[in-house]
């Protein structure tokens, strides 16, 4: 790639990158993926409201959360504006170790910062669950989260999420495509959870204690209560919070069968929870 081509790609991607403000002080980045105001960012960037996006030209617009997948650290926003310059989503499965990539974001409030590096690895990382990550030698800082990672053709191949061991970790773009298509939308259960270990039927088991059940949620409609401990999903024991996050994914309305204990830890109960993937996940 020539220096002129590299600069042109950087400028184009910068125009498709926005600054996302969550609440009063939280800031991150986002990627315009459709001209009608659809923006992709990290789920951890949009933990508070109100949400505002700032474009490359300095204009700002309110935004609303349309979808969120905490397991993949992705969220979809819609800004109240149109005629935006969308980035081109690439096929992350075609990315190879050793390729040159470029990260664009708003680190420490600096708008449109660009950094380049080499892809070091693609795959799972111990301690970060069963999902795949793109690991690249790019410099990220607070405010970079949610920005694009692009290949030498200027295609978005990842969404920058965090720094681990000095490397930038990005969510592959194919996960973004699946979320936009509805395949990774998480139906809302409507609970606040805390992992706990309890002796159940004579053996130590991991469970998810319900600290709060939101009014009108799927969990409340299924008569789950604060203090219940989830121990199984569709007949399988819970091994981590990822198990529940994965079970909530899907593109159709469906029923999830949860096993839980209430009071008597030696009595496992079961309940059917009807999920609606069209609603935004709240917890």
How would you describe this protein?
With 283 residues, this protein is mainly beta. It folds into 3 domains: 3-79, Beta Barrel (Thrombin, subunit H); 92-181, Thrombin, subunit H (Beta Barrel), CATH 2.40.10.10; 191-275, Roll (Pdz3 Domain). 12% of the residues lie in helices and 42% in strands. It has 4 helices and 18 strands. It has helices at residues 3-15, 173-181, 218-221, 241-247; strands at residues 17-22, 26-32, 38-41, 51-54, 60-69, 74-79, 100-105, 113-123, 133-136, 148-150, 156-164, 167-172, 191-200, 203-213, 229-233, 236-237, 254-261, 268-275. It has a 6-stranded antiparallel β-barrel. It has a 6-stranded antiparallel beta barrel with strand order 7-8-9-12-11-10.
What is Rg? 20 Å
Query: Structural class given helices, strands, pairing?
Result: mainly beta
Q: Walk across the major sheet and give the strand order.
A: 1-2-3-6-5-4
CATH architecture of the largest domain: Beta Barrel
Distance between the termini: 44 Å
Q: Helix-strand pattern, N to C?
A: HEEEEEEEEEEEEHEEHEEHEE
What is the third-level CATH name, the topology of the largest domain? Thrombin, subunit H
How many DSSP H or I helices? 4
Count of β-strands: 18
How many distinct folded domains?
Answer: 3
- Note the main sheet: 6 strands, antiparallel, barrel
- CATH homologous superfamily name of the largest domain? Trypsin-like serine proteases
CATH class of the largest domain: Mainly Beta
* Share of β-strand residues: 35-45%
Q: What would the principal axes of the Cα set say about the shape? A: elongated
Task: Round the mean pLDDT to the nearest integer and report it.
Answer: 89
Q: Which consecutive residue ranges, at least 5 long each, have pLDDT under 50?
A: 277-283
Determine the fraction of residues in helical runs and give it as a percent range.
10-25%
């Amino acid at each position: 790639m020539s220096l002129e081509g590299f600069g042109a790609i950087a400028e184009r991607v910068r125009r498709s990158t926005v600054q996302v403000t969550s609440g009063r002080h939280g800031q991150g980045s986002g990627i315009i993926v459709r001209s009608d105001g659809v923006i992709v960012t990290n789920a951890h960037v949009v933990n508070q409201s109100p949400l505002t996006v700032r474009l490359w030209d300095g204009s700002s617009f309110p935004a609303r959360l349309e979808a969120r997948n905490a397991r993949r650290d992705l969220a979809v926003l819609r800004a109240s504006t149109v005629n935006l310059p969308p980035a081109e989503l690439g096929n992350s499965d075609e990315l190879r170790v050793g390729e040159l990539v470029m990260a664009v974001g708003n680190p420490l409030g600096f708008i449109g910062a660009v950094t380049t590096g080499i892809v070091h690895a693609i795959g799972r990382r111990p301690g970060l669950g069963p999902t795949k990550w793109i690991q690249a030698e790019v410099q990220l800082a607070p405010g970079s989260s949610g920005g694009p990672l692009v290949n030498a053709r200027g295609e978005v191949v990842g969404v920058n999420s965090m720094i681990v061991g000095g490397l930038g970790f990005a969510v592959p773009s194919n996960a973004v495509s699946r979320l936009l298509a509805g395949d990774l939308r998480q139906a809302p259960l409507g609970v606040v959870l805390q992992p706990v270990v309890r002796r159940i039927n004579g053996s130590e088991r991991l469970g998810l204690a319900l600290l709060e059940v939101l009014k009108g949620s799927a969990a409340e409609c299924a008569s789950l209560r604060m203090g219940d401990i989830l121990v199984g999903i569709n007949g399988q024991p819970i091994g981590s919070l990822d198990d529940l996050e994965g079970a909530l994914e899907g593109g159709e309305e469906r029923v999830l069968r949860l096993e839980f204990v209430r009071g008597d830890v030696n009595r496992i109960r079961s309940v059917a929870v009807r999920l609606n993937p069209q609603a935004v996940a709240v917890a």
